Amino acid sequence: MNMTRRQLLILLPAAAVAWKSILAGTPETSPNYNMTEHWWGMLVDITKCIGCGSCVRACQMENQVPDGYFRTWVERYHVSDFDIENPKVDSPDGGKNGFPPSSFSDGKNFFVPKMCNHCADSPCTQVCPVGATFVSPDGVVLVDQKYCLGCRYCVQACPYGCRFVDPKKETAQKCTLCYHRITKGLTTACCENCPTGARQLADLKNPNDPIHEFLKTHAVQVLKPYLATRSKLFYYGLDGSVR
Amino acid sequence: MKIFKDAGHLFRLASVFLVGGVLFLVLRGFLVPSSFGQYGHYRGNAVKEAATQPISYAGHQVCESCHADILEVKSKGVHKGVACEACHGPLAKHADDPASVQPAKLDTAVLCFRCHEANLAKPKNFPQVVSAEHSGGAPCETCHQPHSPAIVAVAGGSQ
Prior knowledge:
The complex is a heterodimer of chains A (about 240) and B (about 160).
Chain A: H1 5-24, E1 40-45, H2 54-63, E2 72-80, E3 83-90, E4 108-115, H3 123-127, E5 133-135, E6 141-143, H4 153-157, E7 164-165, E8 172-173, H5 179-182, H6 189-193, E9 199-203, H7 210-217, E10 220-221, E11 233-236
Parallel strand pairs in A: 1-11
Antiparallel strand pairs in A: 1-9, 2-3, 2-4, 5-6, 7-8, 10-11
Chain B: H1 8-31, H2 45-50, H3 60-66, H4 68-74, H5 84-88, H6 92-96, H7 108-116, H8 131-134
Helix pairs in contact in B: 3-4
């Protein structure tokens, strides 16, 4: 390729502008969504969960979660009244296809749906060496898929076991609280498909959200409160044996 | 100036640092994405990129805008709180193009028992049956209509 010095000097700034726009990207925006007006969380009513696995299937379909990995899953607890400190927990294939009949006839038995707690002080975002995971201004813990190195620090840091590294993309994956849905005014795939209403998306900044009435009138709990992660996944009817 | 006598090596060193510093700033300007630091110590556009993922579940409001007849039946039964796609599956493509994308036919033998198969861990007030004993092999829709599952007495005869 023959190029004069003059042509090269003209081309260089053009290439710089092009490179800058590649770095900036051109993401599609949700025009009516203002992230400063929201602070997302979720309410899980354990007394309503029937362990059907609809949330797990919906999440996998909506987010193309690879088989054997879960952004949300359901655990079945069996707590013997003689040994409440050591519950027996099972979750066959994340509860995706429901649960086989229980082999216990005594004690307490219940389901606990689990997912990212979208902590306001999340340990997973603090350990990322490249700033690829963060709490968004509307309170959702997200992963920058272009910057994630797949180093797995965050997978280890999450106290709730909610992250995994995608076997194909080699980047950290997690619940995005269906960010592509909630920014368009829809609810998450798991909440949409929960047949009993055990899961409900909650906007804590919206004073008209039913979550506020619920929080005022019910005893709710978060998982591992002693870690002070400021979890926003509120459980109603949570048993003390749940880890 | 007496103090700068034989100090040429200092200026050479300083210029190396200066060139290095300028090079760092230029490279940094090129390599750090423009939206970095917009909201915090991360690439601001990553938030918007997370919102661009396509939707699979259209949401029951979209279904109801066309299927008002089903909504009418459903709103009177105990399944009024169950979203359409919880049973029918993700149908955003059908909502976008109702003519060419048709929902699959459903099998009540699988669907009903996902929720209603008896399990000790389910809430006690939730209607549950043991599938092997309940209907003697007859499909659920023989007696129950999924959109409003309560059995209504058929006038003038048995079911």
